[in-house]
Amino acid sequence: MNRRHLLLVVVGTLAVVLAGEARAPQSLIVTSPAIKAGETIPRDYTADGRNISPPLQWSGAPASTREFAVICDDPDVPMPQPFVHWVIYKIPGTATGLPENIPIDPATPMPAEIAGAVQGTSGFRRPIYRGPAPPPGKPHHYHFRVYAIDAVLDLKPGLTKRELLEAIQGHIVGEGELVAIYERKPAPQP
Amino acid sequence: MISRRDLLKVAGAAAAGAATAGAERAALPAGAAPAAHPESLHEQSSPRRPLEALTADEADLLTAIVARLIPSDPSGPGAVEAGAVTYIDRSLAGPLSSSREAYRRGLAALERYATLSRGQPFRELSPTDQDSLLIDVETGGATASGAGFDGSSAAFFAMLKAHTWQGTFGDPYYGGNQGFVGWAMLGYPGVRTAVTPDDQRLGARPVPLRRSAYDTDLFNKA
Fold it and tell me: CA-nearest residue of chain A to B144?
């Protein structure tokens, strides 16, 4: 390799590294007025309660954010991949969170502050939030992960977690999560 | 639970070649009885037909459930008006008697699950909460809730759904599809033993025949 080629390789490598650093997602702070990090998720947001979606809040998104996406999954299931409880995306970049109780009826419009948001397909094969319903035995951890995206992408409703992550790859400029737990106790048969 | 529009999308393939429900109603010949309005059907089915297998409480709960599985709406009647509960009740007293215990335990578990999770009996929940609960039963989320489902709640739901579909869209001889509302919903023109050249034209909309297959001599009662 001559000096000219060597220089090109070095410059190219630096460009890739710098570009990668420039695109490293910024940390988002994710909280909930209803769920405390590391603590038990209230019953209303589980299959032992009304099973409505919890309210979430976030901050720290970069100025380049155009949309947000949220995924909730449980890595404690005895499966190769975490079990997906919720996929919601195309949340406007102006949003600072999600209100409680996102509609389960697709004919019901989204709340005004997240107008345009759509839901993807969860592990329950439904395009809605379905909360914790773990088998008894141990607490499961539920990760509510928020992604800030720097583009308005043409994303169809009903995407799975994998499809969504593939679609937003290269556009994630911010990321953060709230982790809480839920456990079902063995119940005596009635 | 499922909108009639969604149901028609699913059932569209089965009713290939048939007109839409609305179009079929429009195509009914003069004098033919269209699917009755939900209110008139409600009056027809009240008081309830004598039960053969279910208790009155079970039938009331089942009625509330099937009302969410195939609801009536402005475009026409649903599973309740079709008599799906009558079909299930009669079947449990006869050919489906082996499922009687599964219904007893499953309905009791569903009612307990309603109280445990939503704080009220199923019938007192809002339609949205009823739908949410049924989704939990359907997807197995209710299984380990302590409500007492035998195995997976999804298995009970699958049985219930299959029988509701049978009771809504099956032959009226078996007690469901009263007033042919299920066939009208699908745009199914009815059992035909002869097809005219006009019926075979591309785009033809056969005149609906509203009669049971057993009203002809070609089918044996099962």
Answer: A135
